[in-house]
Amino acid sequence: MNLVDIAVNLTSPAFDQDQGEVLARARAVGVHTLIVTGSSLEDSAQAIALAQSHEGCVATAGVHPHNAKGWDTESSPERLRELAAGKVAAIGECGLDYNRNFSPQDTQRRCFEDQLVLATRLGKPVFLHERDAFDDFLAILKRHRADLPGAVVHCFTGGERELEAYLALDCHIGITGWICDERRGTHLVPLVKLIPANRLLLETDAPYLLPRNLPKALRGKSGRNEPSFLPHIAAFVAEIMGKPVEQLAAETSANAAGLFNLPPLA
Q: Which domain holds residue 216?
């Protein structure tokens, strides 16, 4: 079984002490491709450096809405363009987050739109984040979607209205271990069945979102999520969808390869 984890925050300090072991554990369970998330210009540079030094890793390059306050419309797009010339599969993580408003909302919108424009110019897909900002997010994305080669709404946790809107724009949908959370993810169980087989992607978003139904023997003491837990998420989703996990793995890996222009997995 070969799996692609489309979102790993490998630059997180949570992985500083055992990064090599984390990657080895992922490969040992069939997670052979990791997309390392970039969330600021500085973080994106680190993500690219990690991707270049580890086989099976590629990076995204972008500015998360939390970090939009540091976006300079004059200089930041050029710096991001330079970064994107490296081992970069997508522009992002970019989007809107009105849940915590770590950056002013108008600044978030400007930063998001600038990155969509750049992705269009570079012919790269976008890796998207939205939280409590659906209407503004959708309006901006709609203006640019036809010119983008692809888009994934990463860590989808919305409702049916949001899912239908994203699918209508031909977006891919990223599902995390949130779906395994009996406190807040149960609404995703019926919704995941509505995602076409060619639009579903899987992710851990490690070190965040440790699946709550993961066996205690695997969890360790830190509560840290890691890409080796992706097969657990895949098995849970496959059971919901009524298909063998091997089939789901093949489908989602092919989807990731197509969206991010990855080499096909054997």
A: 3-260
**Total number of domains constituting the chain:** 1
**For the CA atoms of 170, 60, 256, 259, what is the dihedral angle to 10 degrees?**
40
Task: Give a yes or no: residue 265 inside a domain.
Answer: no
The answer to whether the predicted template modeling score (pTM) of the entire model surpasses 0.90 is yes
CA–CA distance from 32 to each of 23, 163, 175 (Å)? 9, 28, 18
Q: What is the rounded CA–CA span in Å between residue 63 and residue 43?
A: 9
What confidence score (pLDDT) does residue 135 get?
98
266 lies in some domain: no
Side-chain-side CA neighbours of residue 48 (13 Å): 22
Cis peptide leading into residue 149 (ω within 30°): no
Strands lying side by side in the sheet with 151-153: 3-8, 31-36, 57-61, 88-97, 126-131, 151-153, 172-175, 200-202
Mean pLDDT of the 42-53 span: 96
Give me the CATH number covering residue 18. Answer: 3.20.20.140
Q: Model confidence over 171-229: pLDDT tens digits?
A: 999 999 999 999 999 999 999 999 999 999 999 999 999 999 988 777 766 789 999 99
Contact 61, 93 (CB under 8 A): no
Residue matched to tokens 């490969």: 27
With contact defined as beta carbons under 8 Å apart, do 119 and 88 qualify? Answer: no
Quickly state the pLDDT bin for 265 (edges 50, 70, 90).
low
pLDDT tens for 62-72 read 999 999 999 99
Residue 19: inside a domain, yes or no?
yes
Cβ contact 228:28 at 8 Å: yes
Establish if 199 belongs to a structural domain.
yes
